[in-house]
Write a structure and sequence with these properties.
Length: 71
């Protein structure tokens, strides 16, 4: 059975602080892992775009800044 966010919040109300702390730790770990996966996926997409020649590289800061001004 799936719960709505509101139902989950209601379910947590009144739980012992020990359980709430453990749930908070789990939520942080899950969020961190999810973000890592997003970063890894973005990295793969960026590398693929680079290999296709769709990305520019810059060795000079001025060139980079000019490119950003043009965007």
């Amino acid at each position: 059975m799936k719960m709505t966010f509101s139902e989950l919040v209601d379910e947590l109300h009144g739980r012992p602080s020990e359980e709430l702390s453990e749930l908070a730790d789990l939520a942080r770990r899950y969020a961190t892992e999810q973000r890592r996966q997003e970063i890894a996926e973005n990295g793969k997409e960026g590398l693929a775009a680079y290999k296709r020649g769709e990305l520019k590289t810059f060795t000079d800061t001025d060139d980079l800044m000019r490119s950003l001004d043009e965007a």
